[in-house]
Amino acid sequence: MQLARQSFAQPLDSSVFVFHHDAANPCPVLWHYHPEIGLVYLPQGSGRRHIGNTVSRYEEGELLLLGPNVPHLSYGYGQDDTFEEVGVLFSPQLIDWAPGAWPELDPVRALLARAATGLVFAATVRHTVGRQVQRLRSLPPWERLLSLLDILQQLALCPEPAYTALAAGPPVTASPVAQERLNRVLALLHQRLSGPVSVPELAAEAALSVPAFCRFFKKMTQRTVTEFVNECRVQQACRLLRGTDSITEIAHASGFQNLSYFNRMFRQLMSMSPSAYRRTIAGPGCLTP
């Protein structure tokens, strides 16, 4: 597992880095941050959004603009083979290399200030801008830069109802050693998610005593181990509910050995029962972010 301050091989001929992740090419780190501004597009799918101190869900895709150095969990964590993510990273200096210069970029500067801890855009914006983000992969450097500026200008002019600000908290302060330790724990946790999860085993992976590990995990994720595991399992259940397995089968496949506890956790986190969620995603008007 690599260090969680994610580094990218910046092309020599471009100030814009475009990446693509899917099941065959996942993000190499789980809990991570980077000094660049990020624009991330998920064409489809639903799952867990864990940005800094904020944990929530996205449904039917995602378009996120995130400021530099905000720790976040990889969108691919716990996802299935249909997962796909396209994104672009660029230095804040690309827009603000000379403060006061290029007044035409003032709306974009204001947008990036609002996005310091994360902006999630509504479906109407996501569908239009997302396709443009996907096209960045095939553009030569100069056209890619111009297209990115156009995308940012479009986002800057969106009215406030078209986006939601995330209260993700301040930029990262944890050391790279702590970040890498958490990544090892999350990788092991993902392997154990469908069965019993042993806190002592996770603590041993982190090379910490159980009490020290529990404090460390809560500080890093803003969640207890139990809360984090339940949220990941409910996310797994949400994916399985798109199929035809029974609620009982889905509960067990998601790691819940007790059906009543599964129903209680699902209702607590999703504000509806598993059956109601299945009906919602099967009919028109699916859930929105």
Automatic annotation (TrEMBL):
<keyword id="KW-0238">DNA-binding</keyword>
<dbReference type="InterPro" id="IPR018060">
    <property type="entry name" value="HTH_AraC"/>
</dbReference>
<dbReference type="Pfam" id="PF12833">
    <property type="entry name" value="HTH_18"/>
</dbReference>
<dbReference type="Pfam" id="PF02311">
    <property type="entry name" value="AraC_binding"/>
</dbReference>
<keyword id="KW-0804">Transcription</keyword>
<dbReference type="InterPro" id="IPR014710">
    <property type="entry name" value="RmlC-like_jellyroll"/>
</dbReference>
<dbReference type="GO" id="GO:0003700">
    <property type="term" value="F:DNA-binding transcription factor activity"/>
</dbReference>
<protein>
    <submittedName>
        <fullName>Helix-turn-helix domain-containing protein</fullName>
    </submittedName>
</protein>
<feature type="domain" description="HTH araC/xylS-type">
    <location>
        <begin position="183"/>
        <end position="280"/>
    </location>
</feature>
<dbReference type="GO" id="GO:0043565">
    <property type="term" value="F:sequence-specific DNA binding"/>
</dbReference>
<dbReference type="InterPro" id="IPR020449">
    <property type="entry name" value="Tscrpt_reg_AraC-type_HTH"/>
</dbReference>
<keyword id="KW-0805">Transcription regulation</keyword>
<dbReference type="InterPro" id="IPR003313">
    <property type="entry name" value="AraC-bd"/>
</dbReference>
<dbReference type="InterPro" id="IPR009057">
    <property type="entry name" value="Homeodomain-like_sf"/>
</dbReference>
<dbReference type="InterPro" id="IPR011051">
    <property type="entry name" value="RmlC_Cupin_sf"/>
</dbReference>
<dbReference type="InterPro" id="IPR018062">
    <property type="entry name" value="HTH_AraC-typ_CS"/>
</dbReference>
